Amino acid sequence: MFGEHELRTQFIKIIDKKIHLVEESENWILYRREGVQVLIKKGKGKFLILPAPAEGYGVKFLMIRLSERIAIPPKERIVGYLSAPIDISIRSGDLEIDRFTVGREKYSLYGEKTVGVIARYHESDFYESIPDSPAVVKLVIYNPTESWKMVERVVFPIRNSVMFYSEERAYYPLIILLTKEIYEVNNTGNPPDGTLRQTHRAEPLPNFRMRWL
């Protein structure tokens, strides 16, 4: 699914969507998806299907609510995985020719009505191993305080975030949540697994302080 594909007549299934490549002639390929059509001149560039952060209508944050809240003892660290939504980026060389969402698209207000932000919304279990999901977040939670802490959701910045992928699964960068007095989240920009490919040069995003728990 993810990665480079040959420019020839074929259907390609991407989770719950399909794209269609049609050879118009020796030099031209027609790309089609649900009313979107792009004529591609064959050249040196690769045809790529890549995961993209779930920005949807242009949001900057992803909020994942846990199906079961997690209680963490003082000075403890836990590592696990969450399922997550993604967008799909279709590229011809370094040009994005199409971008779309897959799965059910949900949004939610994070914070208060007057000062909150709209975030992409998703619900997930907390897994000890990689779940059978098209997209995954590896999450490290560390409680540096002397008190027990509760985690019921994670909110982190995704705008322009690098993504990582294998052929069948997409990954967000490693996410670290520190349960300080004000919870702090770090989209590290680092791969959760050293064997994965990246969509572009990885850079960390600024830490985000979760003012509303």
Automatic annotation (TrEMBL):
InterPro entries with a match to the protein in the record:
DUF432
Top-level taxon of the source organism: Archaea
Q: What is this protein called?
A: DUF432 domain-containing protein
What is the protein's species of origin?
Thermococcus cleftensis (strain DSM 27260 / KACC 17922 / CL1)
